[in-house]
Structure formats: structure tokens, C-alpha cells
Specification:
Order of helices and strands: EHEHEHEEEEEHEEEHEHEEHEEEEE
Number of strands: 19
Oligomer: single chain
Helix content: 10-25%
Shape: globular
Largest sheet: 7 strands, mixed
Length: 369
């Protein structure tokens, strides 16, 4: 069933447009969540997953794995409420070991009623963690999907990228064999999906940009390269269709203020500042208000973000457009005691938590006439 907004959006339009007659809207939630080490218990000799096994330092047992799945399913089923009674129509995820853990996740009782499909590729990340997209088959129909690698190298000032223009029209789910010299920095691919949300074409990019391991300054160039690749993908989509609706979501390992966003992607914090074919980042103003998705040394930041093409923020709602965004930080996701009180409730050796990140989400709405 579609969720129809009646009263909350009625007040929104009375204030902004002066209409006296209530309007009705369809609403869909789009979400992203860093699942933080969603590993199964099986040792994969091809990846560095030894610690996430029953014999590893995390003592990762089957019981703990099942509890982790249950915890994540609860979160995913509740993101976007109360405005939308349906679970997110699409969910981007990161820190995923393989397709098998996603299949276990969508079979959880909290998620099974939504009949989620999976789009996933194995990335060349040295830990064996990937990004993926879950989508409700009832509402979203993917037509093409591909994994676009970020080829970056230590001690080089240049970044080698594959031809994005050829990738945006791929429809194969076959894995690509990665062959690279020894000084390549192995990181996650950028996952591009194009499909139809209730008949309207939309493209989604799921990201997990290079980490800050080694220092923010030393690794900043890698995330700037990731931003440049992301921008190139979006440019290619807009070249094919100037009105392309594009959403880029992920754990970017950078805040909205970093060069990877402000320079490489050219994001803007205010809708009024977004040029044609530009990008809007609703999370920049949230950070300015002191909000965050993760904390380090008692300092909050927003690495988890969802950015939108200018085509999704136009003032009409004849088709699905952006309404508002948020950080899902319900009390049960927050550590309540100890050194990390107030932080996201993550996994420890004594407790199976949720994640060291809060999930983020936004609403797309369309007027019902």
C-alpha cells in the first residue's frame, strides 16, 4: 500500500504556497546504513576476515551473527517512520561481506514482508567488504546495474578511471576481474543502479569511499578522486538524459565541508544555490546544527550522506521530488553508559550492537491528483 501524507504536508503547502485546500501525496523513503562489519562466521581464505570467525579475536559465533541480523532488520524496518508507515523502498548498505549475508538479512521476520531484492558485486577491498542495494520489488524495478572501480595508486598524483560512459548502460551482473599493479590502493567500487520507481526513472549510486586510515590529510586525495569519479558518473547520466534524477548515497568517510564534496562534486547546502545539473546536500546544514552520524573523541561528524541532483529539488511535485532528510538516531541505537555514552551503539566483545554509524534517510514525494 502507498502511504498517503494528508495533514503534515497540508500545513507545509499552506505555509509555502498559500493553498487552502489539502493536498495528498505518495511518499517513499530512501535510506543508507553502514552495517558495520556484517560478516558471516565462515572463514574466507580469499579475504581478510579471520577476526570475524568463531576462532577470531571477535569470537564471532553463529548466535552473535544471528543477533546482528535481527538488530539490523529492526533498524531498517523502522527508518522513516512515523511520516511513512512503509519501510524504505531502497536501502544502500556498506561493510557487507558477501551476498549471502544480505540474503540472510532480508529473510529476517522484520524485513521479509517487504520482499526486498538484492544488487551486489564483490569489490576488490582488502577486507572483502562491499556495498549493495536492497529494493522493494513492488515499487522499484532495476533496469541496469554495474560496479565502477576507483583505480587509485600510492605515490601517484593521477587517478586512472575506467570509461564511465560505457558502464552506465551495462545490464550484466557478472563480476569484473581486477588486475592492478602492487601499489594500487584497493577500495570499494561505486555501485550504479538505474531503474524505475513506480514508473519514474531514477539512478542511484552507492558509495563507501576510501578510509582515513593513515590520516585525514594523507588520504584526502583518495576521497577527492572518489568524488571526481562520482561526479563523472553523474555527468554521464545527465549527458544521456538532461533531466536524469540521480541520488548518490553512502559512507563517504568525509564530511559535507571537505574538498571531495565542495570541489570534486560541487555540492551546495541550500537549494537556492544549486545550479542547473548541480548537486544538493541536505546534510550540510544538519552538521552546522550540531547533528552527526558518528563520533570520534567526542566530536560529531556526518560521513553518511545522501545527495541529490538538481532535477530532484525542483518546486513542483508532479513527479517524485525531495521533501526532507534526516538522521535515524532513535534511543535504542545510542550507547547509554561508559566511555562512549551518547555514541552509536556498536558491537563489542560483550554486546552485539547495531553499528558505529547512524543511518540516514530522505523522503521522495509525489502529488496524488
Amino acid at each position: 500500500m502507498h502511504t498517503i501524507i494528508r495533514f503534515s504536508l497540508f500545513f507545509f503547502f499552506v505555509l509555502s504556497c498559500g493553498f487552502a485546500q489539502p493536498k495528498k501525496f505518495k511518499i517513499h523513503t530512501v535510506a543508507f546504513y553502514n552495517f558495520e562489519n556484517l560478516f558471516d562466521t565462515i572463514n574466507d581464505p580469499a579475504t581478510n576476515d579471520d577476526e570475524w570467525t568463531p576462532r577470531g579475536i571477535q569470537n564471532w559465533t553463529n548466535a552473535k551473527y544471528r543477533q546482528k541480523l535481527k538488530n539490523l532488520a529492526r533498524v531498517l524496518s523502522e527508518i522513516g517512520t512515523p511520516e511513512n508507515t512503509n519501510a524504505p523502498v531502497v536501502i544502500g548498505g556498506s561493510e557487507i561481506e558477501n551476498r549471502g549475508v544480505l540474503e540472510d538479512l532480508i529473510r529476517q521476520p522484520k524485513l521479509q514482508p517487504y520482499d526486498y531484492g538484492i544488487i551486489h558485486f564483490d569489490s576488490p577491498d582488502k577486507r572483502g567488504i562491499d556495498v549493495a542495494l536492497l529494493y522493494q520489488k513492488k515499487f522499484f524495478r532495476p533496469t541496469s546495474f554495474s560496479n565502477i572501480p576507483l583505480n587509485i595508486y600510492k605515490n601517484r598524483s593521477t587517478v586512472i578511471e575506467e570509461k564511465v560512459e560505457e558502464k552506465v548502460e551495462e545490464e550484466s551482473e557478472e563480476e569484473k576481474v581486477v588486475v592492478a599493479p602492487n601499489n594500487r590502493v584497493f577500495t570499494r567500487d561505486q555501485l550504479l543502479i538505474t531503474g524505475f520507481l513506480e514508473g519514474e526513472e531514477i539512478s542511484i549510486i552507492v558509495n563507501h569511499w576510501p578510509s582515513r586510515s593513515g590520516g585525514e590529510k594523507a588520504t584526502g586525495k583518495y576521497r577527492e578522486a572518489a568524488g571526481a569519479l562520482n561526479r563523472k558518473i553523474i555527468d554521464s547520466l545527465q549527458h544521456i538524459n538532461p533531466d536524469a534524477k540521480v541520488i548518490s548515497m553512502g559512507d563517504f568517510n568525509d564530511g559535507p565541508y571537505n574538498r571531495s564534496f565542495k570541489v570534486a562534486l560541487g555540492t551546495k547546502a541550500k537549494k537556492s544555490e544549486v545550479p542547473e545539473f548541480g548537486l544538493f546536500n541536505p546534510f550540510e546544514e544538519m552538521l552546522a546544527r550540531g547533528m552527526g552520524t558518528l563520533a570520534f573523541r567526542d566530536s560529531w561528524d556526518i560521513f553518511d550522506q545522501i545527495i541529490l541532483s538538481e532535477s530532484l529539488i525542483k518546486p513542483d511535485f508532479d513527479s517524485f521530488k525531495f521533501w526532507k532528510a534526516g538522521i535515524f538516531n532513535k534511543p535504542y541505537l545510542i550507547q547509554t553508559f561508559g566511555k562512549y555514552k551518547g555514541y552509536p551503539l556498536r558491537h563489542t566483545l560483550t554486546e552485539v550492537g547495531f553499528s558505529d554509524h547512524f543511518p540516514v534517510y530522505l523522503y521522495l514525494i509525489k502529488e496524488v491528483k
